[in-house]
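Listing S7. Sequence submitted for prediction.
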Amino acid sequence: MSRSIKFYRPSPAVFAVSITGGRCELNCPHCEGRYLESMERATMPPDVIRAFDKAKSEGASCVLISGGFTRRGRLPVDGMVDAIREGKERTGLKVEVHSGVIEDATISALARAGVDAILIDVIGDDLTIREYLGGRWSVADYRRAMASARASSMRLLAPHVLIGVDRGKIRGEHHAVDIISEARPDSCAMLVLTDGASAPDEAEAEKVMEYARDRLDCHLTLGCMHGRGAERQKYERIAVNLGYDGIANPSQETERAAVAAGIEVVWKDGCCVFP
């Protein structure tokens, strides 16, 4: 049977919105709020509705609702649910929420508002949560949040695994994959955090990627964050060789290698969590 792989172009199809502006209580060392800088700032409900209109006018097909997290590991999205509903009804765009471990009632409200996908970065080690992220939640909260999303009418549960999140150490990643497997997600994206001296050992990162492919019976992708240049290409080759279903923003070299290997390449505009 011939094999295919999806290559995703998130920009400009995905319009990212920060509902906290540049503010984040965690301010984790690998981000320090940098990823919020490129997002549309929408800190009040009317701003969120206007962001949907702007996304539509700029040709986007999906709105990502994100922002900084609280110390309890949650995106403070409760006061924005009605605005998200109105924005979706006005524009018809897909909506995904980068939620963290929000309350079950909030997950249900987002599902009723028409949110298509919930994205949860799963950390599989309590020590990493407390000492590296400075968080006041636990691994058990991921189980609870994913189970709640799975039980809701949400179209997609799409957790993410951050490989090397704790200064490049591989500590809770395999456990994160196990927890995700228990939740029976629709999609999962693997991210490799490779900034500076905190990059994970490549061989160890590959083991996590391989473990995820073995354990997860879902749409599995290599997400947007996986390094730069030659380093980025290495992780893309690993994903292709392991039989991943998709890669976000792959290099031309990876496309050529896939085609040379007889793999059909299918390009899609949008977020890699959508099969």
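Caption to Listing S7: primary sequence and predicted structure tokens for the chain studied. The longest helix spans residues 202-215. Residues 4-269 form a domain with the TIM Barrel fold (CATH 3.20.20.70).
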